[in-house]
Every structure is written in structure tokens, then in C-alpha cells.
Design a protein that fits this description.
Blueprint: E1 5-12, E2 17-18, H1 21-26, E3 27-35, E4 42-50, H2 54-62, E5 71-78, E6 81-97, E7 103-112, H3 132-140, E8 148-152, H4 174-184, E9 188-193, E10 200-205, E11 214-218, E12 229-234, E13 240-247, E14 254-258, E15 270-272, E16 278-282, H5 290-304, E17 308-315, H6 316-319, E18 328-332, E19 340-352, E20 355-364, E21 367-369
Parallel strand pairs: 8-10, 11-18, 13-16
Antiparallel strand pairs: 1-2, 1-5, 3-4, 3-19, 4-7, 5-6, 6-7, 9-10, 12-17, 13-14, 15-21, 17-20, 18-19, 19-20
Helix pairs in contact: 3-4
Length: 376
């Protein structure tokens, strides 16, 4: 079995290919950030190059207008398990002189493939008799040549526009319109790289906070400790009660309806939850039907319910695997109030020669775990 950590870097126009050894030797560090919600993932590659190296010219050309898209795929293999952590495009490059007058530092930054969806404004394209999920599928079909596979979850809100009454039209870029359609039904949109190099899943659906947890993060457990630092915060002031407004179609009288933060998609991870001390009125729901307003309200309620947060850092080799964002993870050894399951909201990969660490952020909606045990 292949032990240790191995990095695979692929760069190329549209279809990336493994980079030559000279580029790998010049690579100093890799930084990749992945977050929950609709936030874009990003990356940063840092190279140490001599001033007369032909690689500088090559990087400048590939970061310019020819070709228009320079794609980057970053994959890591941890203890024989390969994971694609980034599939994106280069958006910026920067060269800075080093301490040695004969060498320079080249930094390439970029974003995931959703950056390509934000280039061209396609406002005005009609979508007759198509519900939101069908429109999202039609928009994502443009990017199939990049290996983007749609992961579209149909909404419980069945809203098929009748062409004789209205024909929906696109507003803005593909990314702007997809995010707009996600907000209409309380969904999120993001692109998840993998499972194979050159493939990505474009997820359009609810933000799900349940599933099989990742192995636990252990603190103060002697030989079983696998995190370098872990700090917690309990912010009860964050608890907010959203109130949606539904308009009675007959009397036109607005009806306020409070939305609870606990839903099947956002189950309670903590037994003790603070009482909301603030109220947020969501007035724009008055123009929607009750079901659509409830979906939007539940999505907003789940974002304000996470009163417990944590930040930390771990060594991947000691943890034995990659910690992934948008999934659950267990925490042990902290104490009764903060042990238990958490939702991983953000993960930043920091890779250097002989070192692979991850910074992460966790959240949940209450103190004291509702589960007596977490997976080790």
C-alpha cells in the first residue's frame, strides 16, 4: 500500500495534463480553500523561479489571453486514497522579486469552475414552461465539455410557468441566475471537484447537515490527539427567529409566520439551544406562495441557528485522511458542552514540501451533544 502524501498538479487549456518535472520542482506551496453555502472555492500556487527561467515566460503566456482559459487540477493522495481538492481556472498572476536578486516568486491564484459561469451576461434568454430545476440543468449543459456533471435536486415547490401567462427570462450571467434560482427555493449552489481529475459536480440543492460523520477530531487525548489547535465560541446573540410574511390572496392581508431553525435538513446537533433574542422580518416572501415562503424562511433560519462555532488546525498525516467541508465531523476530548458532532463550514489546505496541514471552521446549533458517541 502506498503510504504518505503525494501531490498531483495538472495544468492545461480546457483539458489539464500533468505538469513537467521542472514546474513541480519550482513549486513552493499550495493553498486551497473550500467553504459551505454558495461561496466559491479558490486556490493559490507559489513558485520559486530564477529570473532567467523559461518557466516565467510560459506562465505569463498561459495567464494571458492565449489560451483564454487555463485550467488547474490539484489532487492529493493520502495513504493510498486519492482526492481531487481543486478543479478551477487561473484568474490572476503576480511576480515579486525574492531576497536573492537572481530569483523571483511567482504566485498564481484562481477560482473553481464557477468563475467561468460569471463571464458572459446572457440576460434575455427565455425559458418557456420550465421550472427552476429545468432551467438550472439547461444552463449547466453548456459546461459539460469541462467535465461538469449536474447534481440538481428538484424542489418540492412545483412551479411550471404557463407560457401564455409568463415566460421566465435569464437575468445576468449563468452563475448569477443559478444563484437567483437557488435563493427562490432556499437552495445553495456550488461546484465540488472530483471524484476523478477533470470531473466536477455542480450541486444545486438544499444545504444538508446530516449524513455519515467523518472520523473524530481528538483533543487532549494523549496518543490519540490528532489536532494541533481547536478553539470554541458560543455566541447566543446570533440566534435569530426569522418571520416570513404570507399575503392572503382573498383579503390581501399579510400574515406573519415564525419559522423554526430546526428542520429535517438542519437537525439539532446540540441539546441546549438558546432562545432567539432577535427577530428578522423577511418581507420579500409576501409575493410568493406559502410553500415557497416557508422554504426561503427555513434556509435563512438554518444560517442563523449555528450559535456554536470552532476554528482549528490539524496535520493531515496525523489525522490520516483529508477533512472535507460541507460534511459532519465528530469532536472528542473538549468537554460535555462542546463534544459531539459539528458541521464543517470551511477547510483550507496548506501544502508545502514535507508538510500538509488543514485549517478548518466548524459550527452547530447548540451546546451538549445529542449523540453519546462519535465515530473514531
Amino acid at each position: 500500500m502506498l503510504k504518505g502524501i503525494y501531490l498531483t498538479l495538472m495544468i492545461g487549456p480546457a483539458v489539464p495534463v500533468p505538469v513537467p518535472r521542472e514546474i513541480v520542482d519550482a513549486l513552493v506551496s499550495v493553498r486551497v480553500t473550500s467553504a459551505s453555502g454558495g461561496a466559491r472555492s479558490g486556490f493559490e500556487l507559489t513558485f520559486d523561479l530564477s529570473n532567467d527561467s523559461p518557466l516565467q515566460t510560459a506562465f505569463l503566456l498561459t495567464s494571458g489571453s492565449l489560451p483564454p482559459v487555463m485550467r488547474v487540477v490539484i489532487a492529493v493522495t493520502v495513504n493510498a486514497s486519492a482526492e481531487v481538492i481543486m478543479d478551477g481556472v487561473i484568474t490572476n498572476h503576480q511576480i515579486a522579486p525574492g531576497s536573492d536578486a537572481r530569483r523571483s516568486t511567482l504566485t498564481l491564484t484562481g477560482e473553481d469552475l464557477s468563475a467561468l459561469m460569471d463571464w458572459v451576461d446572457f440576460s434575455g434568454i427565455p425559458f418557456p414552461a420550465m421550472p427552476p430545476e429545468a432551467r438550472v440543468l439547461a444552463l449547466l449543459a453548456k459546461y459539460a465539455f469541462l467535465g461538469v456533471v449536474p447534481g440538481v435536486v428538484p424542489s418540492v415547490l412545483i412551479d411550471i410557468p404557463i407560457p401564455v401567462e409568463r415566460i421566465p427570462e435569464q437575468r445576468g450571467t449563468d452563475l448569477t441566475y443559478i444563484n437567483y434560482l437557488a435563493d427562490l427555493v432556499g437552495y445553495v449552489f456550488y461546484i465540488d471537484p472530483g471524484p476523478e481529475p477533470g470531473m466536477s459536480v455542480a450541486y444545486w440543492g438544499p444545504e444538508v447537515k446530516f449524513g455519515v460523520p467523518q472520523p473524530a477530531l481528538n483533543v487532549q487525548m494523549d496518543a490519540h490527539t490528532n489536532v494541533e489547535s481547536l478553539n470554541f465560541r458560543f455566541d447566543k446573540e446570533k440566534a435569530t427567529l426569522p418571520i416570513i410574511t404570507i399575503q392572503n390572496q382573498a383579503t390581501k392581508v399579510p400574515i406573519p409566520i415564525p419559522v423554526p431553525p430546526i428542520t429535517p435538513l438542519n437537525p439539532p446537533l446540540g441539546a441546549v439551544q438558546p432562545f432567539p433574542n432577535r427577530v428578522e422580518w423577511i418581507s420579500e416572501t409576501a409575493k410568493y406562495n406559502p410553500l415557497q415562503g416557508a422554504l426561503i424562511g427555513m434556509a435563512k433560519a438554518s444560517r442563523t441557528a449555528d450559535v456554536v462555532s470552532a476554528t482549528g488546525k490539524l496535520d493531515v498525516l496525523r489525522y490520516g485522511r483529508l477533512l472535507k467541508s460541507r460534511k459532519l465531523v465528530g469532536v472528542r476530548g473538549v468537554g460535555l458542552a462542546f463534544d459531539g458532532l459539528y458541521y464543517v463550514t470551511s477547510v483550507t489546505h496548506e501544502i508545502k514540501r514535507g508538510e500538509y496541514k488543514q485549517s478548518f471552521e466548524l459550527s452547530r446549533n447548540g451546546l451538549i451533544s445529542i449523540t453519546p458517541k462519535v465515530p473514531a
